[in-house]
Write a structure and sequence with these properties.
Order of helices and strands of chain A: HEEEEEEHEEEHEHHEHEHEHEHHHEEEHH
Structural class of chain A: alpha/beta
Number of helices of chain B: 13
Oligomer: heterodimer
Number of helices of chain A: 13
Largest interface: A-B, 69 and 70 residues
Distance between the termini of chain B: 45 Å
Helix content of chain B: 25-40%
Radius of gyration of chain A: 24 Å
Radius of gyration of chain B: 23 Å
Largest sheet of chain B: 8 strands, mixed
Helix content of chain A: 25-40%
Distance between the termini of chain A: 50 Å
Largest sheet of chain A: 8 strands, mixed
Shape of chain A: globular
Order of helices and strands of chain B: HHEEEEEEHEEHEHHEHEHEHEHHHEEEH
Number of strands of chain B: 16
Strand content of chain B: 15-25%
Chain lengths: 479, 460
């Protein structure tokens, strides 16, 4: 019942926030009516529909079924032989957070906000759309035990940053446990910054406990002030504390905790601490040893957002196994697969397919790992994560079953707006190539011998199998 | 106890060693390659060839080199493939594997790993053996850094990758790569080609390995000079190695008349490569670097193989004309430039194939994620590479590029029995691997990961 109420509340919130977004869309003339014809539709929550149509009106899914008629002026796509999957949701991303992934100087940085640093032109966003991804949970790095406030976004490519913020999505925050907040693999003085408390898992626990203790006192102080203000006038209000306010929201169940963690013991530590302070962890992130304590995670009611099979890149990732997701699913945990990488984000469909091999998840369970489950983890499951009438028209059309390595995204829609179209992309290339040639010949690119500035060395290669929580940490340290 | 045993063993061998020295002196003329390289005495351990006799029946056999056999059998004996066909005569006593509904493929090969040289890359430097100090290390052999008991090996082979090239990295001449089967308790047991290739991290401007979003520094005249100096130093070393090889050969032919040349392990290691007898793997990704690497290799008469190859399709004509193959380890990298099409690297393999350039696909991973190899090939297939070519790019083509296609890369009689039996398309992520044979031995489908899974999956 409680769960139902929460769902209803989220839905109501979502609908309230939808009105301005829909209006904005109507203004742009985008996100109009779309009819996708004769596709195999993987609804995720309502099975697979063969030879079915999908009708979008005003950015919403208006109808799903056979033989739907296109309204006048609708974009019609013949998707014979193609597959429709809800937009993939990546519950751990640092895309579009240009150079501001970590505020590394303190161990509690709950005052900083991801939404202040969003770059809507980050090309990685486009590459993610081309991988069928439509929503992201943007988290800070893992430098601090208590990190910054996260942002839940839709990839509204072509729109300003403010339009990316997912309307009505519950606010969140990043926590981090283990090697990164204790700065294990990062240089200290003289090459690196001064050492910073904590240096052990003991200290990580203590930092979080201390922060919540202060938050609890702060909340009491305000409660007392409000109480006394009823009787007396002219009282001085407590000083506002922007670090503690988000923590008070956590204590009041208004802000989701997304906790970066690896080892089983630190997972249990945070569960214990959360129980003691009376809050819930919404997701454990990475949670590579989640399989060791899956029942404990399930009992706490937290979700788990993990890698499919990324492992061994540091000591706390050495006990990671590709069966992690399947074990947690079997124990009743809501599990998602995330990227934590602008690269891996482009192929989360294959990551999901691996989970059929490792632990024997069904096709539907595998698909849920990248759609409905992360939608729940972000608190937006009433809006996205499945193909259902009334939900946002966030989906991609795939050339083959998206659990196949041979599948490729043909089109991606967000709120019914076509934001990636492979054919359009291909058609645009000659023109971009010509533009590039012109720019290379422009005055600004004169050869150094002719008085031009020396060219920049090519930047480093962004290889597969990187791990942004770590690489961003390293770069932020170097800065 | 152990030390005593070893000492005793050494004592036993002492007369043999002495005899060998005497014989060598008396015979004088040793084969030139042996004279040239002190390390070249490493030979693979053949203990694995005592493996048993097996027959896999009722399988679809994807030979890769020839036509598929819809319902066939493969016989394994003495570590080799003894028979392949629709009907075979299995030797008496052969252990039978009924593979009804399953498919036999050659084991996959990744020619661009550092398997066994790295266990935990970050936070455990004691487990990292990829990069030696100094800039020119031709005599550093990866084989002696490979840990046969690395957890990565089990994890990789149960996914169907049965052999790899393990490469050193760092410096300019990083060292020598080893081509190993992923089975065995010693390096020599694992070795297919102990010193399979020389690895050169071709000098370039900026754009090093790892991640990074820092604005790149401007190319200064000093940076250009520094790069050119490193190339020049390599040129000098390779020429010296040629001269060194000639001097030693001359001495070997006529030790009485020719003064005995000094031994230099660095030059000795370089000789077979300077003579073009073995492949030289040059790491280069950008157009200009690939071109420079190829031209350098041709000038020095090396046998070049490009590793990386992000921009290789832009240099396709040169690569095709000079028959320079590419180990593409960049399929799943992010595009080099912001304005590159989103699928530039996904379709790199298809472009090379269309241009007639020889290539293989690699993960480029140090070890933990080499098991992803089929999915790199799968992505290339999703973006234009014919599926059969994608399969060859992780089986036969790496074997050809490394010069071992007489032993690895396809299901053919006489080849090393590296086989994978699956319940579906080898490149699909949802496919299950049911049997793995390496060097004719059945590999238990057990790894660090399955052990931990079994240990915890039922914990209440």
């Amino acid at each position: 019942m409680k769960r139902f109420l929460a769902l209803a509340a989220t839905a109501a919130l979502g609908c309230g926030a939808l009105v301005p977004a829909a209006r904005a869309q109507a203004r742009r003339g985008a996100g109009g009516d779309v009819l996708v014809r004769n596709a195999t539709i993987l609804t995720v929550t309502r099975g697979t529909l063969q030879n079915a149509d999908l009708l979008v009106r005003g950015g919403k899914i208006a109808a799903v079924g056979p033989g739907l008629r296109a309204p006048e002026g609708a974009r019609v796509l013949d998707a014979t032989g193609k597959f429709v999957l809800p937009g993939i949701i990546d519950a751990h991303s640092h895309s579009m957070m240009d150079g501001s992934v970590n505020e590394c100087t303190q161990s509690v940085t709950s005052m900083v906000r991801a939404e202040d640093v969003l770059n809507p032109t980050d090309v990685d966003l486009y590459r993610e759309l081309a991988g069928g991804v439509t929503s992201l949970l943007l988290l800070h790095g893992s430098c601090n035990a208590v990190g910054g406030q996260s942002a839940t976004v839709k990839i509204k490519w072509g729109h300003p940053a403010s339009a990316f913020l997912f309307p009505g999505a519950p606010p969140g925050i990043k926590f981090a446990l283990g090697e990164n907040p204790k700065r294990t693999n990062f240089p200290g003085p003289p090459q690196g910054p001064p050492l910073r408390y904590p240096r052990t898992r003991m200290g990580v626990e203590e930092v979080i406990r201390d922060a919540f203790t202060r938050a609890r006192d702060y909340r009491a102080e305000w409660a007392e002030y409000r109480e006394r203000s009823r009787a007396a006038r002219g009282l001085v209000a407590p000083r506002r504390d922007l670090t503690l306010e988000p923590l008070v929201e956590i204590l009041e169940g208004k802000r989701y905790v997304h906790a970066h963690c690896y080892r089983a013991d630190e997972i249990l530590m945070l569960i214990s601490l959360a129980d003691e302070f009376g809050f819930k962890v919404r997701t454990f992130q990475h949670v590579l040893e989640g399989y060791k304590v899956a029942s404990d995670i399930a009992r706490h009611g937290a979700g788990a957002s993990t890698f499919a099979d990324f492992w061994g890149y540091k000591i706390e990732a050495y006990d990671a196994i590709p069966y992690n997701a399947a074990v947690m699913v079997r124990k009743g945990v809501n599990v998602s697969l995330n990227s934590d990488s602008d690269e891996r984000a482009r192929r989360l469909n294959v990551e999901a397919a691996k989970m059929m091999r490792y632990g024997g998840l069904s096709e539907e369970e595998a698909l849920k790992l990248i759609t409905w489950n992360p939608a729940w983890q972000l608190g937006v499951e009433s809006r996205v994560g499945s193909i259902e009438v009334g939900k946002d028209a966030d989906f991609a059309v795939w050339s083959a079953h998206p659990l196949s390595v041979y599948a490729r995204v043909e089109q991606t829609y967000v709120d019914g707006e076509l934001v990636f179209d492979r054919q359009a992309d291909l058609a645009r290339r000659p023109q971009l190539e010509q533009e590039r040639r012109q720019l290379e010949q422009s005055e600004a690119n004169r050869a150094p011998a002719e008085g031009g500035t020396p060219p920049r060395a090519p930047s480093a290669i962004r290889r597969a199998y990187t791990h942004d929580d770590d690489t961003h940490d390293e770069e932020d340290e170097q800065r | 106890m152990k030390t005593n045993a070893r000492r005793a063993g050494l004592k036993d061998f002492r007369p043999v060693v002495a005899l060998f020295v005497l014989l060598s002196a008396a015979l004088g003329a040793l084969p030139s390659a042996r004279v040239a390289s002190a390390q070249d005495t490493v030979t693979p351990d053949t203990r694995l060839e005592a493996a048993g006799v097996y027959v896999i029946r009722n399988a679809r056999v994807v030979t890769v080199s020839g036509p598929e056999i819809e319902n066939g059998a493969v016989v394994i004996s003495g570590g080799k493939i003894a028979a392949v066909g629709a009907t075979v005569n299995a030797p008496a006593g052969a252990r039978e594997i009924d593979a009804r509904g399953l498919t036999v493929y050659p084991g996959m090969m990744d020619a661009g790993t550092s398997m066994g040289l790295v266990e935990v890359a970050s936070g455990a430097p004691g487990t990292v053996d990829t990069s030696e100090l100094g800039d020119m290390n031709p005599n550093a052999a990866a084989l002696w850094g490979v840990n046969p008991h690395s957890a990565h090996i089990d994890v990789t082979r149960v996914a169907g990758v049965t052999s790899v090239v393990s490469l050193p990295s760092g410096g300019t001449i990083s060292g020598q790569a080893a081509l190993i089967n992923l089975i065995g308790t010693s390096q020599r047991e694992m070795a297919v080609v102990p010193q399979a290739a020389l690895v050169i991290d071709f000098p370039r401007l900026g754009g090093g390995g790892g991640g990074g979003f820092q604005p790149a520094p401007a190319i200064t005249p000093d940076a250009v000079t520094a790069r050119d100096r490193r190339v020049e130093e390599m040129r000098r070393l390779l020429r010296e190695a040629e001269a060194y090889g000639r001097a030693h050969d001359a001495y070997a032919r006529d030790p009485k008349a020719v003064p005995r040349p000094e031994t230099d392990l660095r030059l000795a290691a370089l000789v077979p490569y300077a003579r073009g007898e073995r492949p030289v793997i040059l790491r280069a990704d950008r157009e200009r670097d690939i071109r420079n690497a190829v031209l350098f290799a041709l000038e020095m008469k090396l046998r070049p193989v490009i590793l990386g190859g992000s921009d290789a399709w832009k240099v396709a004509r040169l690569l095709k004309e000079r028959d320079v193959p590419v180990i593409l380890d960049s399929v799943l990298n992010l595009p080099l430039r912001e304005d590159d099409p989103y699928d530039t690297l996904f379709e790199g393999a298809a472009k090379l194939q269309a241009a007639g350039v020889r290539f293989a696909i690699s993960t480029g991973d140090s070890g933990a994620h080499v098991r992803d190899l089929p999915f790199h090939a799968g992505m290339a297939a999703a973006f234009g590479l014919p599926r059969a070519e994608a399969l060859r790019a992780v089986t036969l083509y790496p074997a050809e590029i490394m010069g071992v296609s007489d032993r690895l890369g396809s299901v053919e009689v006489g080849k090393i029995a590296n086989l994978v039996v699956t319940d579906g398309d080898l490149l699909e992520a949802r496919t299950n691997v049911r049997h793995v044979f390496i060097a004719g031995r059945p590999v238990p489908l057990v790894s660090r990961h399955t052990v931990l899974y079994e240990q915890f999956k039922d914990r209440p």
